[in-house]
Amino acid sequence: MDDAEDLARRFEEHRGHLRAVAYRMLGSLSEAEDAVQESWLRADRADSEDVANLGGWLTTIVARICLNMLRARGTRREAALDVQEYAYAHVPDPVLGPVDTVDPEQEVLLADSVGLALMVVLETLSPAERLAFVLHDMFALPFEEIAPIVDRTPAATRQLASRARRRVQGRAPSPTVDRARQREVVDAFISAARGGDFEALLALLDPDVVLRADAGSLPTTKLVRGARVVAEQAYSFRKFAALNQLVLVNGMPGILAASKGRAVSVLAFTVGEHGKITELNILADPTRTQTLDITFLTP
Predict the structure, then answer these.
(1) pLDDT for 257-266, tens place per residue?
(2) Which of 33, 215, 22 is nearest to 114 (CA)?
């Protein structure tokens, strides 16, 4: 086996990890794949003979690529967490799977329970903050290795991660129930939606529940807060309830509405320790839902 073949083999061993890094950095499955592929092209062109830690070296390559991709987006996506900001809501790509099993590749991609609620908040960070937080807090890279990527000192990079951590801890609701309990709540939500039971929907919601609906350029894109208005939104979509089925959304029970082998919408839940739904994230952008992999639904 020559050096090129050996590098290719070793790169494949790290592909899952690199994809996980890129997904957390970009919030887009397709862009994450592009970043990983670009990292292979760069690694293949570089001189890796003297690289002692191939995994760390590849991680820094994909991180630089992701940082450039974030910066190239132009303006940072700001998640509208203020109740006055109803017009804008962005939901990152969900990772879907069958409710009774977790695919090994998904387990790598979703290590540390990276739910959509957390991914939403990561979207509000600056590119440098996001990189520092993801690499240090999620993948335990030392600041000395992260600093050259963001062109800062280790001390300044530590401050970036600290600032990001405060924003994440203050704004990302943490799921505090296990998968079985969340499944009970989601099953009850599906039952109430199919039955058109408004009061049952309302009873499942925390008084301060947040609903973020990303329909792309469609006018239904919005962010709303409060149990009654969120229940009204859910109730208005009861005509689609027959399409709903239980799936795993980023490793936790959620809802997929699918028709003719294509996803129509995805609903991710955050359930608090009191058993009430504290956050709902809906992806209904037709240009993005049609690209989601739902082949696991095929018997």
Answers:
(1) 999 889 999 9
(2) 22
